[in-house]
Each structure stands twice: as structure tokens, then as C-alpha cells.
Write a structure and sequence with these properties.
Structural class: alpha/beta
Largest sheet: 9 strands, mixed
Shape: globular
Distance between the termini: 59 Å
Radius of gyration: 22 Å
Order of helices and strands: EHEEHEHEHEHEHHEEEEEEHEHHEH
Helix content: 25-40%
């Protein structure tokens, strides 16, 4: 079924926020790397960033771009709080919307964004999220194994994702970074939304979460830069999620124990040590006291890391023009937001949280954190690295639903 964006045969694309990621998306469209799209406008609060895009219209205010009639769809790559407000504005004015991760800072704001999508004026409007890790063949293969039941029931999930090392210079590169009022959090909000999305995409949502988060553990920050979280699932499975921006060399290892064995994704390899007999069946039927199931070592073939951002953007255009299924629907984004919220607030409140979280409680706790934030008062230094901070969107820097006494930082070691 066709869902034309307009009378145009292509999608006229506008990018709001052309810092690091937004600039990449805009250049990809400008250089015809996204089939059936044309970059027609960019928006940023810093006009200096327009120099890379001399052939398109420039806006310093997202509301003007959204109402300009020059775009059919927008990609929102602003600081996080504006994902909600700008997303709501764009959806309400009939545009197709793709939001960078995370779709919102907290669950209550995410619900507001999803409500705007449900109330969209045109039923054919497309709402997508930039969860590009869903295109990685390693995770695609694991999801297929899980969905087909080849691994059996999941017993345990462990993800160590600590190769996010960041220097003090990185955090000083922009005043909005790593503050409750500017970014809305730390490693869970910035570096890990992709892994949080994959956790729920692959294994579903846990029913209980207990997080231990270090606020400014390794850097002079008010937000989380170290996290260890314990997850409990409805079927009795357990999970542990470990991440930090203060560890070098880091690790990225996902280990999944299932009835049919153990799958490990680390580096470019996917290894399955397959139980010939499911573990529960073997432990109940074996007459031997120290026996273990026979195993086969299976290497699951994968090549590369998939189309990543370009694949998600191309799929966004296909969904607009052809009605193709989205690889990363925007409505899915609330689950990774809630998972990160649960890890952080469990630590702040010093108790295990049961999911689904109460949205009002989440909003209240984030307002407390933001109220006590140092905000953008931190001196921003120029970074010599390739990564630069995303610009603040003047028209909507913070969502109306989120502004607490900052918990005492954990001692340094």
C-alpha cells in the first residue's frame, strides 16, 4: 500500500540540529546516500553550521521550518529534551518524524510524544526512531534465533558495555553535556540507548530493576558515568547490565544463557555453544551426579555491521513512500527510555523498582534532579576530537514535563 508523503516522488527532508549526528544525517541526504530523499532545509540555533549546506534553506527556529511547507519529513537531532517538544510540534503539523535516540528523556515525556503520534492529523504519517543497531547482523541473527525458538527459553542475560571511555575534554566540549537540565542524564541517556533498545527488542522488558549508579564516579559530573543494574524477568530469568564512560580498555560482550546453550556476541563474532539436550530436560533426566549436556560449538556467520544510520533513514523513506514496515518504530522508543529511567531512579531512590513505572513518579524525580542541576554553567572548552556537541534548539530546549536535589556523588577512587 502506498503512503505518499505529498505530490512529490521523493521525500523532502529537513534536519533539525546539525551538530555531530544531525550534520551526518544532513550530509548523507545532501550527497544522495539516502535513496528517494532530498535535503531541502536545515535548522540550528548556530548559523555558523549552515556553511556546509549552502544549497538548502536555513532556519534558526524549528517552528518556522515545520510550518514552511518546504519539508515532508524531519529528522530531530537536538539536545534530548527538545526531542519531545519538537517531535510533538512536527507530528501535530502533519509531518513525518524520525527522532534520534533517545526519543525523550523520561517516560512521561515519551508518553506525550506517543500521544501526539496517536492524535496525528494524517493517518499515513510515519514516526520512526534512530535505533540503527537493529540493522547489525549479529543482533539480527540473535533475534531470529530467539524468535524461532531455536535457543529455547532465556535463563540469563549479561551485557558488559564499557567501551564508552570519555575524557574530561569530551564533557567540557559543550555545556549541555552530562547535566540533568541539558542532557537529562549521563551514560544511560547518551551512550547506551542503543543497548537499552536492543535489550528490550531481544528479550522483552523486565518486571523488576535494581540499579547502582555512580554519579560523577570517574568524572567531575552530576550525572551517571558508571552503572550496574540487575534485571528480573517474568519467567524467572535474570540479567545484569554494566556500563561506564570511565573504563579503558573497555568491553562489549553480550552473553545469553538459554535452554539450548549459550550465545556470546563479542567483537565481530557470534558463538553458540549449543546444548544437544536442553538444560532443564538434562538436569531432570540424567542419572549421573556431575554430568553436563553434550555441546556443539556453532559459529553463526555474520558479515559487517549492517547499514546502520543510512539503513534506518532509507527505511524511513520507504515507509513514507511505500508503506514499508519500520525497522525501528518510534513507538518502541518508550521502552528503552523506561528501562534507563528504572536503572537510574532505582539507584537514586535506593530500592528495587517494579515495571511498568508510574509516569508521574518518574517525572517528579526528574524534576527534582533538574532543579538541582548545575545546568550549562559548566565552562565549555573547545574539543580537539571529532565529536562535537549537538546544538541547543532555541525554540524548545527543554520539554515542559521535566525540570530535585541532586543525590550525593559517589566518592572518587
Amino acid at each position: 500500500m502506498s503512503h505518499p508523503a505529498s505530490t512529490h516522488a521523493i521525500v523532502r527532508l529537513g534536519v533539525i540540529g546539525v551538530g555531530n549526528m544531525g550534520g551526518f544525517h544532513a550530509e548523507s541526504a545532501l550527497n544522495h546516500r539516502i535513496p528517494r530523499t532530498e535535503l531541502t532545509a536545515v535548522c540550528d540555533s548556530d548559523p555558523a553550521k549552515f556553511a556546509r549546506f549552502p544549497s538548502v534553506r536555513h532556519f534558526t527556529n524549528s517552528t518556522e521550518m515545520i510550518r514552511s511547507g518546504l519539508v515532508d519529513a524531519v529528522v530531530i537531532a537536538t539536545p534530548h529534551f527538545a526531542h519531545t517538544t519538537i517531535g510533538i510540534d512536527a507530528l501535530s503539523h502533519g509531518l513525518h518524524v524520525l527522532v534520534e535516540k533517545p526519543i525523550s528523556v523520561h517516560k512521561s515525556d515519551a508518553e506525550k510524544l506517543l500521544a501526539a503520534y496517536e492524535a496525528r492529523p494524517k493517518p499515513e504519517q510515519v514516526f520512526a526512531a534512530m535505533f540503527n543497531q537493529r540493522t547489525d547482523p549479529r543482533y539480527v541473527q540473535l533475534k531470529q534465533l530467539l524468535d524461532r525458538g531455536e535457543l529455547g527459553e532465556v535463563r540469563r542475560v549479561n551485557w558488559i558495555i564499557t567501551d564508552w571511555f570519555r575524557t574530561d575534554a569530551y564533557y567540557a566540549s559543550s555545556g549541555w553535556r552530562a547535566t540533568w537540565s541539558g542532557e537529562g542524564g549521563g551514560v544511560l541517556m547518551n551512550q547506551c540507548p542503543h543497548q537499552l533498545d536492543l535489550l528490550q527488542w531481544l528479550f522483552g522488558m523486565p518486571v523488576r530493576v535494581r540499579g547502582l549508579c555512580g554519579l560523577g564516579r570517574w568524572h567531575d559530573l552530576e550525572v551517571d558515568d558508571q552503572v550496574t543494574a540487575y534485571l528480573e524477568y517474568a519467567n524467572g530469568a535474570s540479567g545484569v547490565f554494566v556500563t561506564t564512560t570511565g573504563e579503558a580498555p573497555g568491553t562489549n560482550r553480550l552473553e545469553v544463557a538459554c535452554e539450548r546453550g549459550r550465545v556470546v556476541i563479542e567483537g565481530d563474532n557470534v558463538q553458540w555453544r549449543r546444548n544437544v539436550t536442553p538444560m532443564s530436560e538434562f538436569l531432570r533426566s540424567s542419572p549421573q551426579t556431575f554430568a553436563t549436556p553434550e555441546t556443539w560449538n556453532v559459529t553463526i556467520p555474520t558479515t559487517g555491521h549492517g547499514g546502520q544510520h543510512l539503513d534506518i533513514l532509507a527505511n524511513f523513506a520507504d515507509a513514507i513512500l511505500d508503506g514499508s514496515p519500520l525497522k525501528a518504530p518510534g513507538v518502541d522508543g518508550i521502552r528503552s527510555v523506561e528501562l534507563g529511567n528504572a536503572m537510574l531512579l532505582s539507584s537514586v531512590l535506593e530500592r528495587t523498582l517494579t515495571l511498568p513505572l508510574d509516569s508521574a513518579m518518574v517525572e517528579t524525580e526528574y524534576r527534582k534532579l533538574i532543579k538541582g542541576s548545575r545546568g550549562v554553567a559548566r565552562t565549555a572548552a573547545k574539543s580537539s576530537g571529532q565529536i562535537s556537541g549537538k546544538p541547543a534548539e532555541k525554540s524548545a530546549q527543554t520539554a515542559p514535563a521535566a525540570t530535585v536535589k541532586v543525590p550525593k556523588r559517589m566518592p572518587r577512587k
